[in-house]
Amino acid sequence: MPTRVAQVLLDSPLPQLDHLFDYAIPTSLATSVVIGCRVRVPLRMGNRRVDAFVVNIVDESSFGGTLQEIDSVISSVAVLPHGLYSLARQVADRQAGSASDVLRLAIPPRFVRAEKAFFSDEAVARRHSIRAESARSTAVAETLSRVSEKRDDLRTPFASFPDGTCRSIVVPPGSTEVDEKHVPTWALMFAAEAAVTLQRGESTICVVPAFRDIDDLLLGLAALEVGDVVVRLDSRQTGGERYAGYLRILEEHPVIVVGNRSAVYAPVHRPGLFLIWDDGDPVLQEPMAPYAHPRDVALLESKNSGARLVFAGFTVSVEVQRLVELKFASAWSAPRSAYPKVVPTDSLTNEQSRARIPSAAWAHAREQSLIGPVLVQVARAGYAPSVCCAGCRTRAVCAACSGPLATGSSSSLPSCRWCGLIAGQWRCPECDGTKLRLMSSGSERTAEELGRAFPNTRIVLSDGAHTVTRVTDTPCVVVATPGAEPLAENGYRSVVVLDGESHRSRAGLRVDEHAVRSWIAALALARADATCFLVGAGHELGATIASWRIREFAQAQLAQRRALGLPPTRRTATLTGFHADVVAALERVASLGQTRVMGPSSTGVQSRAILFFDYRDGDTITAALRASIVVAATKGTRRRTATSQPERIVRLRARLDDTELEDSP
């Protein structure tokens, strides 16, 4: 019997190895090597062994030399379907990265115990029984009909939405009660459309930024009685749980996948719908190479599979608004009657607007807190995030690292927010003063002050260190930081957004976009008949939010970017590395399209340059950048000592569409 040949992709970070290698399949492994399985192969004349995925099996190789043989099979489970490999290759080419880096995000590590348990006779029989019961049951259709009677607009945003198309949805605020459980309206809308897609025999992938969003969506799916076909993929799971969930996705049965960034790669059976919630949230930006945003990955997958694609949120990102204006995506927005009344306090008298909480907002919050929950959003966590000299008002910084000083309570000593050093003997370098003054109030100090102002009212604190997800419809004041606001049963009686000037004073191109997104996320938690207050937003942003011109704001932001030639109207590549390699990469792409370069600028041995280019030149320029990266990577490694292992030097790195290019930390 002639020896067959496996074409494998090595699991290696080296860019020069980002292509398929041919290996002979030994007779002893002929039945266990299958397309998509994990194997271990020799590398560099057999001196090293590396893991690899079998991408294809052919009868003969085009390689003229003698092929090395596969060393062993890690697992015969085909964890890499062909469609996922094709997607990884597309994403890598778009991002000037490696397909193995994409697969590292998409495919969880193997856990032997979880794999054995998943394929045990008992587990297989249980899954078969659940699917058979689901096929016979009419509970999903009945529950969906019952919920739709209570909320008849659940599927309105998805009307006239054919396969293979994209839609931008601004969802209505609030929550809906289902079987005595309050579910955010957006989560119930997602769940309803996923349930309908499931009834068509198709799978749905839901990508959300935060764990609390996952919990909300799972609550909505459970309310519609489709929990048995839901697969959760997120970093809170154990490795075994995540791997078992991935194995379930590989089965040829439709599922509903709910997860964070990497869930977008899930190789589901018959993908019919991609739902991306709040794509403008910075948490969705992938921090690992090749740095592809789930929004861009979903666009590729929708094109490949013909599935519907939805970008939904309380706001619209400029990237999605660009798709709308290109007629690539249709648009649907909730009616303005669904939103609460918002009073920007910049429109009040000067006397009122000077206070951190203007008197009108204070009086209304006090009144409403007697009958139900009131939300107060503050910009920062902690007690006093910044302090200054009481004498000359110079900002107090750490003597060791020049980081900002902060205090954790009214009685604690100031400490550095960067290095943690306690500044017990601080002295002002300008006036030699030793007394400090609190410059700002964080969530803890605000909660403390409101507790004194409302002595008979329960104060609830929710921030990064103290997270609360739900509050009942009883009198209380909730102090929360952006993203940590609890959901209130029946909505908040009032919402007061503080520290608007703190949001707007930050540097970066997306400052206004992030500020509006943060404020609207809090205001959307109010009852439709509530009166809310927005403090420090400025006249222009305040008027925009008061009139709920959400899509118009995105249009204005995009128009500004277009006039300046900035993302997302043009693509960018941030190049970092040795100066000679950065310059060589820029020279390679100089004649390939209409480009603009900022830099390179150097800090020590490292240089940085930002390349701007048009979307139409994307394939050509990313291919050229990838070639430059490979050339730079072949220039060798160095050793720390004579006996140490080689230390890999990243001589050139390219980060496409880098959001940090626009925003300061």
Your description of this structure?
The protein has 19 helices and 32 strands. It is of the alpha/beta class. The protein folds into four domains: 5-78, 3-Layer(aba) Sandwich (GIY-YIG endonuclease); 113-337, P-loop containing nucleotide triphosphate hydrolases (Rossmann fold, 3-Layer(aba) Sandwich); 339-560, 3-Layer(aba) Sandwich (Rossmann fold); 571-661, Alpha-Beta Plaits (2-Layer Sandwich), CATH 3.30.70. The strands form nine sheets. The chain has a seven-stranded parallel sheet, with helices on both faces. α8 links the parallel β10 and β11. α1 crosses α2 and α3 packs across α8 (239-250). It is globular, with a radius of gyration of 28 Å. The termini are far apart. The model has no long low-confidence stretch (mean pLDDT 89). Keywords: ATP-binding, DNA-binding, Nucleotide-binding. Residues 7-108 form the Primosomal protein N' 3' DNA-binding domain.
List the helices and strands and how they pair.
Blueprint: E1 5-10, E2 20-24, E3 38-43, E4 48-58, E5 72-75, H1 82-95, H2 99-106, H3 112-118, H4 121-136, H5 139-150, E6 166-170, E7 175-178, E8 181-184, H6 185-199, E9 203-207, H7 211-223, E10 230-233, H8 239-250, E11 256-259, E12 271-277, H9 294-305, E13 308-313, H10 318-325, E14 329-333, E15 341-344, H11 350-353, H12 359-368, E16 373-377, E17 387-389, E18 405-406, E19 415-416, E20 436-438, H13 443-453, E21 459-462, E22 470-471, E23 476-480, E24 487-488, E25 494-497, H14 500-504, H15 511-523, E26 531-534, H16 539-546, H17 550-564, E27 571-578, H18 579-589, E28 595-603, E29 606-613, H19 618-633, E30 638-639, E31 646-647, E32 652-656
Parallel strand pairs: 6-13, 6-14, 9-11, 9-12, 10-11, 12-13, 15-26, 16-23, 16-25, 21-23, 22-24, 25-26
Antiparallel strand pairs: 1-2, 1-4, 3-4, 3-5, 7-8, 17-20, 18-19, 27-29, 27-32, 28-29, 30-31
Helix pairs in contact: 1-2, 3-8, 6-7, 10-17, 18-19
Domain Primosomal protein N' 3' DNA-binding: 7-108
GO biological process, one term: DNA recombination
Keywords: ATP-binding, DNA-binding, Nucleotide-binding
